[in-house]
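Aim 2, interim progress: modelling of the calcium ion-bound target.
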Amino acid sequence: MQKRILIVEDEPAIRDMVAFALRKAGLDAVHAGDARAAQEAIMEKVPDLILLDWMLPGQSGLDLARRLRREDLTREIPIIMLTARGEENDRVSGLESGVDDYVVKPFSARELVARIKAVMRRSQAEDERGSVELGELRIDGAAHRVFANDTPVQIGPTEYRLLHFFMTHPERVYSRGQLLDHVWGGNVYVEERTVDVHIRRLRKTLEPHRLDAMVQTVRGAGYRFSTSY
Ligand code: CA
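Predicted structure of the complex, ligand included:
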């Protein structure tokens, strides 16, 4: 089945360029000019991925991303954020809000399509992952849910992948580069500091369950997930 991509972008030139490139790559492209139109498009048919511009009239792309991550219907939809060059803080806030990847303007259609395909491959691989139990944590792979002592854990899509990797590879130290390869699929565009952002988010996710100490920093080496803490 053709994958449906929702483009949320108010600039017609960029929107048209992106839609053209996506259709050429065999993807179905729909468009919304602001957050409200995006919500309507999602209600009509849930897309397989959302390309979200940061600067939108009315509600910003970041606020929309946060809202999408809070709602059950949209929590799992991969989001790629489009940001302006040099807005380093934007990128970090974007990743912290649960966005899967970001692309800096101006970008080439080819780069964008490659990134979309990488993100979709990742989310597909994730669906095929199984259930795992470690200490007080349990991942139900089919339901795509995490439980801490049988209490549901609210978790973002990247943190879910990271936790799944850690739980299937505990008690070993992984460098940022190794985590990028395993969890992000060796996407060369993602910077190593992205790992730190998601590690922080994962700790925050586990904090209410008093399990954040399982995510351990190994100075000068990377991170380890351990049941001894
Ligand atoms: Ca814009």
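The CA atoms of residues 121 and 146 lie 21 Å apart. DSSP finds eight helices and twelve strands in the chain.
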